[in-house]
Design brief:
Helices cover about 80% and strands about 0% of the residues. The protein is built from one helix and no strands.
């Protein structure tokens, strides 16, 4: 692989990392909320 190709793939890889982390966090949050709603869990009273 040429230096240009390696540079492009490195930039694309590091640029995609935040998107991958954020989308994973959002997917887990949505799945957790959906599971809590499906199980009928109510908020704790203060």
């Amino acid at each position: 692989m040429s230096v240009l190709e390696q540079t492009v793939w490195t930039i694309l890889g590091y640029g995609a990392m935040p998107f991958i982390f954020l989308s994973g966090f959002i997917a887990v949050a949505v799945a957790s909320c959906a599971l809590l709603v499906a199980l009928g869990v109510q908020p704790a009273d203060e």
